[in-house]
Amino acid sequence: MPTYPPGSAERKAIDEALVEMKKQMPFEVPCVINGKEIKTGNKLKQLTPDSVNTAPLCEYHAATPELVTEAIEGAVKVQKAWAATSWYDRATIFLKAAALVSGKYRNQLIAATMLGQGKNVWQADIDAIAELADFFKFSVKLVDDGYKNQPLITPDDAVNRIEYRPLEGFVLAVSPFNFTAIGGNLVTVPSILGGVCVWKPSPMATYANYLTHKILLEAGVPGSVIQFVPGDAPQIVDQCLSHRDFAALHFTGSTDVLRSLWTKIGSQMTTYRSYPRIIGETGGKNFHLIHKSADIKATVIHCIRSGFEYCGQKCSALSRLYIPRSLYEAGWLDEFVKQTKEIKVGPVTDHVNFTGPVINEASFDRILKLINQAKEEGGKILAGGSGDKSQGYFVEPTIILTEDPHSLTMKKEVFGPVVTAYVYEDDKWAETCDLIDNTTDYALTGSVFSNDRAALAEASELLRNAAGSLGSGTNDKSGTWAHFSRFVSARTIKENFGADPTDFRHPSNLA
Description:
Structural class: alpha/beta
CATH superfamily of the largest domain: Aldehyde Dehydrogenase, Chain A, domain 1
Pathway: Amino-acid degradation; L-proline degradation into L-glutamate; L-glutamate from L-proline: step 2/2
CATH class of the largest domain: Alpha Beta
Shape: globular
Keywords: NAD, Oxidoreductase, Proline metabolism
Strand order of the largest sheet: 14-17-18-13-12-19
CATH architecture of the largest domain: 3-Layer(aba) Sandwich
Enzyme class: oxidoreductase
InterPro entries: Ald_DH/histidinol_DH, Ald_DH_C, Ald_DH_CS_CYS, Ald_DH_CS_GLU, Ald_DH_N, Aldehyde_DH_dom, Proline_metab_enzyme
Number of domains: 2
EC number: 1.2.1.88
CATH topology of the largest domain: Aldehyde Dehydrogenase, Chain A, domain 1
Number of strands: 20
């Protein structure tokens, strides 16, 4: 990855792309049904969260119920032909898509992600280029390896094999705002296997997702295989979930929304042709557990990056922090506060800003409300604690010190630049691990920092169920064959070529 230092060619190229994109705003984004761009006239806006008083990044046409029906029917109709396409041809399409992401569309995708989703150039490159291109490439590798998973033993007079068929019907992909790459991955996983998708993008990531869809079409994905239907989420999702050919939900978003959709799917089981799969990634409450042997300087840097890069708008962002008494007295928290106060916050087009905006006004208001509630509970604000939404949705990187390990911001997902710290006694290492494991319903990510190997081993065992996606969705491990396997319906085939039997009776039946 390029590092975009001052005066570099890559920084100059991005600045030029940003200037050019701003000149053309707002872009007009259509629905794309069966490969054709359709404008409904009902236009909604995707704002730039760091400059809300300027033109929106794009105006997108909301899909009508009739278009959603057309998208579903078009996808289902083309499925058999797409599934029959050779694996070599499907694989080549996604490898070409990776090349387009990292080549032709590189600066355009980065600029769209920066302006539309409020990411600085480093975060945007990680997401929209490195991760998206890797998703496309690794998908080819993982599926190729997965198809080779065949029975290990076959008899001499027969051949056994497994055919990995795509799911019958369509997959509904509902993608989030915070990662351009996730949208690309949600539609790639089922479609590279020969399945078909209806893609409902986030309103706050519409333009970057539209460019991703454009790349997939240019790479050779048939127009009906991935249908692009921006618009009203409840209406589109409800219509898709009520359709007989609904085969799977591929979702990334909030825990409450996934639970609601799961309940709805369960209540409609008699509607469906088969048993729909549910594959979801939801919220998180990332913990950092610092051991008394850990290095102060290194762990402070890790915590700042984890907690405040991209304004904490990742389900993997540091949210709850556990500090041993000895390091606290040695000044660990003082150093964390000092460096946090040095963070520059502002528009992503100014590269000195480490932290940009939160995604929209609703998020801004919710985060400030949680900070105020933490103060009312007795939490001590050591840094930040306020925000300004007059020009963009900027929330100061905030550190809260609590004496209650079960306080509001130690349990509730914030999805913003807020880290709550708790000081534990050095000799309570095992008890603190147990506390971490039993504080929230979330168990997505966590980190343990120690230079004591025995302490690391103990924490790894005690925190076995505290992280690893467990409890934060369906734990299907994106980037593994396990994830892809959820979108296939395996068929076992046995071909006999031994001698035909001459009597229906077995030897055991003879007198």
